[in-house]
Amino acid sequence: MDSNYIKILNDDLGKLKLLLTPLISENIKVNNDSIRCLNLACGRADESGVLEEILNPLAANLEIFGVDIRERELDIAHNRWRTKPHVTYTFLSHDATKLHQISELTQPCDIILMRHQNYWNGAITWQKIYDSALNRLGSDGILVITSYFDKEHLQALHAIQQLGATLITTIQNPQSRPVLDAPNKSVDRHIAVFHKNMA
Ligand SMILES: C[S@@+](CC[C@H](N)C(=O)[O-])C[C@H]1O[C@@H](n2cnc3c(N)ncnc32)[C@H](O)[C@@H]1O
To answer: Does the beta carbon of 97 lie inside 6 Å of ligand 1?
Structure first.
């Protein structure tokens, strides 16, 4: 990655952090001074540092799991984000529609993030991914999604609520960077937070 592109990515992450910090801090419930966070469909997991900076002050122990099906992206994530005091990283290659098969995720998560969820790319698959995610959330847990474009965000909001989750809030990123080769898409254009609240 050249230094210009890294700067662009870091700018995006700075904007994401600004918006996510209050959304997460005001809605997450921390038990036993520890947080289990799942970054689902994480790709290279660029947003790991943002998660760390937001969640680390909230609990003494932070575990961040990243799950994706693309091994190459996970290798990049694994090499970049290393376990250190107070933060444990685990990157797992797995189909996110089948999270119940992952032994490391047997205990419920406090927060699950899906940055740039991909509903448009396969509604049925992504409905299964949302369902699988909600099943891995603790009863007080929160699900956070971001989306690249308006219609996809609305579809995701609808699908996740259909699965029994409660929408807490959805906001638009006022400084979202347009994706040059994709008209009408922009980075972290929308962010939504849900409570699990299953019946
Ligand atoms: C739009 S990318 C977002 C990646 C990253 N979160 C980001 O914001 O840069 C969607 C991701 O979903 C992953 N994905 C798609 N289907 C999946 C599945 N069934 N299980 C796990 N990951 C999946 C892709 O490999 C890809 O990394």
So the answer is: yes
**Any ligand 1 atom below 6 A from CB of 70:** yes
Report the 3 state secondary structure along the chain.
Answer: CCHHHHHHHHHHHHHHHHHHHHHHHCCCCCECCEEEEEEECCCCCCCHHHHHHHHHHHCCEEEEEEEECCHHHHHHHHHHCCCECCEEEEEEECCHHHHHHCHHHCCCEEEEEECCCCHHHCHHHHHHHHHHHHHHEEEEEEEEEEECCHHHHHHHHHHHHHCCCEEEEEEECCCCCECCCCCCCECCCEEEEEECCCC
The answer to whether the pTM exceeds 0.90 is yes
CATH code at 3-195: 3.40.50.150
Residue 197 has pLDDT above 80, yes or no: no
